[in-house]
Amino acid sequence: MKALKLGDRDYQLLAVMAEARCLSAEQLRRLFFRAGDESIMRRRMAKLAAGPRGLVKRVEWYERSGVKFAWCLTPAGYAEAERFTESPRDVPRDDIGAEFLDHHVLLTDLFVGLLAAPVDAAVAKLDARLGRQQIGRVFARGAHPGFRWLVVGDRDLPWKQPNAGQLEARVLRPDALFELLASRRRIFVESEIGTHTIVAVSASKTGATTSKMDRYESFCTLLSGPATRKTWYAERFSDGFKPEVLFLVRTALRATSVQRAVEAWRIAHPLAVCTFRVATVEQAVTSLLPQVSSATAPSPGASEKVAPPVPKSPGVLAAPDVKVLLNYFASAQADFKARRDRARASGAVPPAYPTNEREVYALLQRLRESA
């Protein structure tokens, strides 16, 4: 059997799917098959799935309107995406179950909306008379330096909370992490499809929106230990990014109900550290899109015959070297923050952060992206 030859669109598709874990047929069409012919997408995805070393596989789930289809990467697909992006890709322990795909698609609509914006802009500039062939060469890119998206999946955020004189183990499981690099924001995304209550009626209702707010606030404010003087959040994320939580909802009506509960929680917790927001997918994309503008629009007419990137030249710092610098910076920043906290606790004026601290961090991020 002749080996399948991959083009630029295929590599970009694999890279995006490695981040998203799973994309519905509609999401794939929006990002990579804008020519409007469903058969083109079906044939291409079938070729990518063919054989014992298939790169993708199709899954299905049911909703009121009928059967829906989505696509996930196989282990071979993750390996190919890793080879293309030159960055490690964790293969999830388990596939997303059919009962959770509706929940996952709502979550991923935010990621897709941000990637689709430059595609929409590029298509709008094309001459309609050029036809589907020209439109078919415009698709999303796997590189978006303005932000990082991570579907948490198998990763948990463990912490402990005092209860009756003892420390009880707790676990946070956000649906995704969305990090805005320029503004140093880390957003924990919770996909709220309406299956949980908004206000907890008992301590056992841990899925309720207000219960999630309590747990995120504790995770961001409780110290992980008297010796470290770090919060559980700072212990897990030492980069100084500001924590936020976004409740992603399906409808404006649900957004209004959740927002009402959030406002009541804020009144009851006036000194809360964590920021909580509520938005539909459309509202979230509109709000976040200006802050990810560093992601470039795809070029109309890009060639399909693009090979995977060649290894970086010896003159560029290697990824392990950049990691050493980043770890050193994070350690120094955490130590300086601890000194400021001690000064505040003793009533003294906290020392200022070193000059150009933010500029140095931005430089290290650029080095990491180019390594």
What this model shows, in words?
By secondary structure, the chain is α+β, with helices and mostly antiparallel strands. The protein has three domains: 8-143, no CATH class; 157-284, no CATH class; 319-370. Helices cover 42% and strands 18% of the residues. The chain has helices spanning 8-20, 25-32, 38-49, 75-85, 101-124, 132-135, 209-221, 232-236, 252-268, 281-288, 319-345, 357-370; strands at 22-24, 56-63, 66-73, 147-151, 157-163, 166-172, 176-180, 185-192, 242-249, 275-280. Helix 5 crosses helix 10 and helix 11 runs antiparallel to helix 12. It is globular and about 70 Å long.
Key structural traits:
single chain; 371 residues; alpha+beta; 3 domains; 5-stranded mixed beta sheet; 12 helices; 42% helix
Taken from the alpha-carbon principal axes, the silhouette is globular
The percentage helix is: 40-55%
What is the number of beta strands? 10
- Mean pLDDT over the residues: 80
Main beta sheet? 5 strands, mixed
Structural class: alpha+beta
Task: Give Rg in angstroms.
Answer: 23 Å
- The H/E string reads HEHHEEHHHEEEEEHHEHEHHH
Strand arrangement in the largest pleated sheet: 4-7-8-9-10
Helices and strands, with pairings:
Elements: H1 8-20, E1 22-24, H2 25-32, H3 38-49, E2 56-63, E3 66-73, H4 75-85, H5 101-124, H6 132-135, E4 147-151, E5 157-163, E6 166-172, E7 176-180, E8 185-192, H7 209-221, H8 232-236, E9 242-249, H9 252-268, E10 275-280, H10 281-288, H11 319-345, H12 357-370
Parallel strand pairs: 8-9, 9-10
Antiparallel strand pairs: 1-3, 2-3, 4-7, 5-6, 7-8
Helix pairs in contact: 1-4, 5-10, 11-12
